[in-house]
Design goal:
The complex is a heterodimer of chains A (about 110) and B (about 850). Chain A has about 110 residues and is α+β, with helices and mostly antiparallel strands. Chain A is about 65% helix and about 15% strand. Chain A has a single domain, classed as Arc Repressor Mutant, subunit A, CATH 1.10.10.10. Chain A is globular and about 55 Å long. Chain B is built from 26 helices and 24 strands. Classes of the chains: A alpha+beta (about 110), B alpha+beta (about 850).
Amino acid sequence: MLDRELKKGSAELLILSLVEDQPRHGYDLSKLIEARSEGVLKFRVASLYPLLYRLEKRGWILGRWIEKAGQRRRRYYRLTPAGAAVLASQRDTWRAFAEAINRIAGVDHA
Amino acid sequence: MPEWPRRISEEMRQHLDDEYAALRARGLGHDEAMRQLAGDVDELSSMRARPVDAVTSDVRFALRAFRKNPAFTAIVILTLALGIGATTAIFTVVDAVMLRPFAYRDMPRIVMVMEAMRTGQPISIAWPNFVDWREQNQVFEHLGVYRATVVNLTGGGQPERLIASLVSSEVFKAVGLEAIAGRTFAADEDRPGSPRVAVVSERLWRSHFAADPAAVGKTIVLDGETHTIVGVMPAGMRFPSRATDVWLPLGPFVPTFPADRGAHPGLFAIAKLKAGISVERAVSDMDAIARRLETQYPVSNTDHTVSVQPYYEQIVQNIRPALLALSGAVAFVLLIGCANLANLLLARADGRQREIAIREALGASRRRIFQQMLTESLLMAATGGALGVLLAWWSVRAFVASGPITVPRIDQVAVDVRVLAFAAAVSIVTGVAFGLAPAMRASSVDLLTSLKDASRGSAGAGRRLRSMLVVAEVALALVLLIGAGLTIRSFAALSAIDLGFQPAHVVTMRVSLPAARYPELERWSTFHRELLRRATAIPAVEAVGLNSAVPLEGSGSESEVRYEGQPPPRSMSEEATMCLFQAASPGYFRAAGIAVVRGRAFTERDTAGAAPVAIVEEALVRKFFSDADPIGKRIAFEFTGHGPGAQPIWREIVGVVGHVRHYGLVREPDNMEVYAPLEQLPTWFRNRRPTMTLFARTPLPPEELAASIRQAVTSLDRDVPVFSVQPMEKYVDQATEQSRLSMTLLALFGGLALVLSSLGIYGVLSYVVSGRTQEIGIRMALGATRLDVLRLIVGYGMALTGAGIAIGLAASWAITRSLGNLLIGVSPHDPGTFVGIALLLVAIALVASYVPGRRATRVDPMITLRAE
C-alpha cells in the first residue's frame, strides 16, 4: 500500500532529490532508491524510464548521453533550475504533510 | 518515429543488462537471473505499440498471460471446446440434412403427389386415377409414377437382393438428372409390351461392372428375367431412396396394375411444377380433378383427394423438430458458456487493473488496451474452437457409425470445409461475445483509483453486470433442462407403450422367392412349408414362424373388413372399417411373442382344403361383437368384385390376439389387424406374392442363425436370397431412434448447462464475498452472527437464481411448444417437469451459494479491519 502511494505521489520527489547533487543514470537511480529505502521502495523498469522522460519533458531535469572509455553510453540526468524550484516546493509540502500525520498519529520519527 | 521511444528503450535495455550483470555477479546462474528479470520483461513487451507488429505482440503477450495462469486458461478453453464442439457437431448434421443443396435440378419445384383421404391420411395411387391426373392436370411440367420393389439378382454366384423401383420415364425428368452413361427411359417404355430394360445405380455399376462404360448393352438377370442395361444414373440420384440400385421401366408392369379405382397398388408420384406455379395452386388444381373423379366414380373415389407436398418438406419434416430443438440447445449451451467466461474474464480484468493502469500510464492508448484484451479472448476462442472441431469430428463420426436410419442423407454427414468455416465463424463471434465486456471494462479503468487501491476499484458496476450474466445463465439453463426433462418423460412414455409382441431373443430375416421361378401357388407354399420344417429342426430354435408383414416396419396391405350380418352401409361416405391383413404360419404368434387371448393360433390343420379361418385382434372384436364370444363368428376382408354387389369371402374367427404395433409407436392409425393362415393365402397375395419374413425365437446370435437358415434355403433353391437379418429388437430401436437421440443429446446438453451455470453462481458469489470482506467484517464486529452472514451471501445467490428461474419458466412456457412431435405422451407444459427442474436448479444453486457463504462466515473482523 505504502509502496503504491509513494510511487505515485512522491516518486518525482525521490528522483529530483537524487539528481540534486550529481548527475545520475537510470540504473544508478533505481539501485539507490532500493538501497537507501532498505528495499521498501522499488521501481520497475516499466515505470522508471517513462517517469524520467516526463520529468525531462517538463523541464525539471536534463538528460545527456555520456560515453566513458570502455563503456556503453549512458544517459545521465541532472537537475535544472526549474527542477530545483519544484524540488524545494515539494520538500516543503512533504515535510508539512509528514508533520501533520505525525501530530495526529503520534508516530515518533527516529 | 520520434526520438524518445528509441531513447527510452535503449535506456531500459541497458538497465536490464546492468541488472542481469549484477545478478550474475551475485553468483546466480543464467536461468535464475532471467527468471528474476521476467517480470520486468513482461511489462515491457506489452508496451510496444508499433502498429505493424501490434497483433503479433498482442498474441505473444496473450500466450504469456495464458502460461502464467494455466488453470484459468484450461477452464476457459475447455468450456469453449465443449460449447463450440457441440454447436459444430449439430451444425454438421443440420447442414448435411437440411442446408446443403441436392443434386436435383430446381429442388423447390419438385413435389410428391399422392392420393389422400380428405381426413388427411395419404394412400397410394389407384392406377386409373393416375392416368386421369396425367391427362387433366395443368400444373405439372413432368408427372412421373413409381413403385418401390425388391428384385433378386442372379447369375453370378450368391443370389443378391436389390432395391429396385418401377418408374415411368417422367420420374427422371421430374428430378432433372441425366444418365452418366447410356440413357434413361423413353416415353414408349411406359407402355405395356416394351422390352425388358434396366437403368442401374452408379454404385451397382462400380461393384458389378468395375465402372466400365461398356456395361451399357450388357444384360442382367432380375427375378429370373433377362434385362438389358440401357443406362447408369449418377450417385446424386437417390430417388426413390438412396439405396435404390436399379430402375425398371413401368411398361411391362402396367398390365398387373388393377384397372379398379378402389385398388391402391403401392404407386406414388413425383412431379415437377411448371415454372411460376405454386404448390398451393397445384393443390387446388389437383383437388378440382379429384372432385370431378368423385362425381364420376362415387363408389371408389368418394372422399379421395390429392396431396401435393414439396419433396424437400417430405425429406426433412420428420427430423426438423429434433434438429431445431438440438440447434437451440447447443446455442444455449454456448451462450451459457459465454456468460460464464465473460464472468471469469471480468473478475480477472478487475485483478489486472493495476497492470492495465501502468500500461496506460506509459502511454498505451485505451484502444490499444482494448485490442490487447480482445486479442486474448479471441485467441482463447480460436484454441477452444480448434479443440471443438476435433470434438465435433469425433462425435459426428461416432454418430454416423452408430447407423441412425431416421436421419436423411446421413451418408453425407461429415465435418468438411463448410463446417470448418462455420466453426471458425462461431469461434470469432464467441470470442467477441465473451471478451467484449471485460475488454471494455479494462480499457475504461480509472487510473488514479486503481493505482491507489486496486482491490476495491469500481466493483459496484462490475457486480451488477456479473449478476445479470448469472441470471441469464440460470434462465437459459432452466429452459434447456426443461426441454431435456420433457424429452426424457416422452421417451419414458414411448418405452412404456405396449408393443403387442416380445422382441427379445427374436431374430428376423427375409426370404424372397422370385415370382418367375414359383408361378404356381403350390410350389410357393411347399417351399415355405419345407423351410419351416428345416428351421424348426435347428437346435436352440424354440419357435419359428413366417409372416407377410413385420411389426413396426410400417408397410402392409389394407382392406375393408366386415362381419357376417353387418347392415349394408347407409351411404357411400359412411366409414368402412379398415384392416391390415397378414398371412401367418402357425408358429408366428409364439415366435414373435404375440399372446393369443382367446381361442387358438393357427395349426397345421388350417390347410388350403380346410374351412377358411382367421385370427383377429381384440379391438375388432370389441367393435364388431361388443362382449359376445367372437369364436365361430365370420368376417370378410376380401370381396369378389366391387361396389354394392361385391361378394364377401368369409372366414371363421378361431382366435383373438392383442394389438401389435405395426406402423410405429407414435401414431397408430386405427386399423384392425387380421391374420389368415399362410396355407389359406388371401386372394390378393396370390397375385402379388409377398416377401415373407421369418421369425425365430432363439438365444443364438443373428448371424449364426442366419447361416443355418441360409443353408436350409440353399438346399431348397440356391437362387433364393436371405437378407435383412436382424434382431427384432432393432425394429423397436428404429421406431424409438429419434426420440432416444433427442433425449440423450438434450439431456447431455442440459447437464452441461447445469454444470456451467452452477459454476457461474459459485463464481459470482465468491467474487461478491471477496469484494465485501470489509463490509462483512464490520457487520460481524457490530454483532452479526455467522448465520446472518451465511444468510446474506446465500440469500444473494438465491435471489439471482430466483430471478433466473422466473425468466426461464416464462421462456420455457413459450418455447417448449415448438418441441412439437418430439413430445409423445407428455404435454409441452407438463407441470411435473417444470416444477421438478426448477427445484433441481434451486438445490444446485443452494450448494453453489453455500460454499462461498461458508467462506464468508470465516472472515475475521479484526484482520479485515486492520487491512484498512
